[in-house]
Design brief:
about 15% strand; AlpA; AlpA family transcriptional regulator
């Protein structure tokens, strides 16, 4: 599906929505703003995160792949 996603595991928010300020810049897999993403998580439109530590939040790769596939079929 998307070549930059690992086969399994977790991805952090900058890997999902992109980070133009990173060196090198991270292109978005799902181009929305940080606030739009969190609003979508709260409303159930986007997958729920997994807490990997007190300050580490990530999403299952499988959930992100499903989100991208679902939205590709909607358009």
């Amino acid at each position: 599906m998307h070549s930059t996603l690992p086969e399994a595991g977790f991805v952090r928010l900058p890997n999902i929505i992109g980070d133009a300020k990173a060196d090198p810049p991270i292109p978005p897999l799902y181009p929305v703003s940080r606030s739009t993403w969190w609003e979508g998580v709260r409303s159930g439109r986007y997958p729920q995160p997994v807490k990997l530590g007190p300050r580490i939040t990530a999403w299952r790769v499988e959930d992100i792949r499903s989100l991208i596939a679902r939205d590709m079929h909607v358009e």
